[in-house]
Design brief:
The protein is mainly α. Helices cover 78% and strands 0% of the residues.
């Protein structure tokens, strides 16, 4: 498999990974009506998916470093497809929840394995990560639009059936090509040593920030992504009552905001990362606070700005890991990062369910998320500076 073909599969994999995980937050608006459940009860059905998504990330990263990242990607595509088909045929809430849990296990493969592959030997790492990130963001956008359309026209089961068939088909093509591909040269090689005390200090500062951003930024990202269809449905109650219209608004927001990673990738390849983070998280904290009270049509541009600031910083953590962490450790570091980030979803989903069941709406929730954005902003202060010549402190022994 050539590098160009592999990159196409990696980009498509990022698209499908985010797509399949964002089917349920829109489909749940119809599932709750079909099965006569409250929004909080129906939303709780996805808790096993996000819990499995978080727990499976660590073993996926370990397998990526120890086995074959290429073959792990085949498992990712086919596994996600089979679980989507199982969700489409679920006879009741328990079966749907179990299928979603399986989907979480296979979807967990992409980030520790796929992102590590994206960072391999890239001179313009920021640009490559940004393009890959845009594909993932488009998965969010298309999921909201297509799920709303399929649910309204054909029922919520079709919203799982169609992407399930696509994932299985892509997976079979990838498997056929992977059988004839050599393993990536960087796989299974011993990780290089970290050079000196200064190198270790720089690495730990980067890892501390990545962990803080994954934890607190992960809460913000997951909570807003999961809540957006419901937020728009509530705040646009007088302007739109159609599920497809709500899905279209959410899709438009995700699509426009997803393009923010392209200029961020350009910036990362040229300038210091800290000023960028200060701007992004200051804007994010402010817009989270504004979202606590904004209503009517104004919620659309405010939400777009908020999601734009959320998506824009995503390649920054991957760029930091790709720049400062040895290749032989990257899948494991990515797995820890995404375990923290995705693990928050396992807490966010039941928390959102509990808050809605107890009458505590988005005004309280978004005020909390604004405080979390301020925490990440403070953590950015410990990041190392880029040298005047644009290079970074070397931390690996050659």
């Amino acid at each position: 498999m050539s590098a160009a073909v592999r990159m196409r599969f990696l980009n498509l994999g990022h698209f499908l990974d985010h797509y399949v995980l964002l089917i349920f937050p829109t489909a749940v608006l119809l599932i709750e009506r079909d099965w006569q459940m409250s929004y909080g009860e129906a939303l709780a059905l996805s808790s096993p998916m996000f819990l499995a998504f978080a727990l499976a990330t660590l073993p996926a990263g370990w397998l990526g470093d120890r086995w074959s990242r290429t073959h792990m990607m085949s498992v990712f595509f086919i596994g996600c497809g089979v679980c989507c088909l199982a969700a489409a045929s679920a006879p009741g809430p328990f079966a749907l929840s179990a299928a979603l849990a399986g989907l979480g296990v296979f979807a967990a493969i992409y980030h520790p394995v796929g992102i590590a592959m994206v960072t391999e030997g890239r001179a313009r790492r920021g640009h490559t990560l940004a393009v890959n990130g845009v594909w993932g963001n488009m998965g969010l956008a298309v999921a909201a639009i297509c799920t709303g359309f399929l649910c309204e026209r054909f029922g919520w089961r079709m919203s799982f059936l169609v992407p399930g068939l696509v994932c299985v088909t892509v997976g079979m093509f990838h498997l056929a090509l992977a059988r004839h591909a050599d393993r990536n040269r960087s796989e299974n090689k011993p990780a290089p040593e970290i050079a000196g005390i200064a190198g270790r200090t720089v690495l730990w500062r980067v890892l501390i920030f990545v962990a803080a951003a994954a934890l607190f930024g992960g809460v913000i990202f997951n909570a807003v992504s999961l809540s957006l269809p419901k937020l728009l449905s509530e705040r646009l109650a007088d302007a739109s009552s159609s599920l497809s219209e709500v899905g279209s608004y959410a899709g438009l927001i995700f699509a426009v905001a997803g393009l923010a990673q392209l200029p961020v990738g350009w910036f990362l390849d040229r300038y210091d990362v800290r000023p960028l983070l200060f701007v992004l998280f200051s804007v994010q904290a402010g817009l989270l606070y504004i979202t606590t009270w904004v209503a009517g049509p104004a919620v659309v541009p405010v939400s777009m700005g908020l999601v734009l600031s959320m998506f824009a910083w995503i390649p920054v953590s991957s760029w930091l890991v790709g720049t400062y962490v040895p290749m032989g450790w990257r899948s494991r570091v990515f797995s820890v990062e995404y375990t923290l980030s995705l693990g928050t979803t396992a807490v966010v989903v039941p928390a959102l369910s509990w808050l809605h069941l107890n009458g505590l709406g988005f005004s309280i929730q978004f005020a909390i998320w604004a405080g979390f954005a301020a925490v990440v902003l403070a953590a950015a202060l410990i990041l190392p500076k880029r040298r005047a010549n644009g290079r970074h402190a070397a931390i690996l022994s050659n």
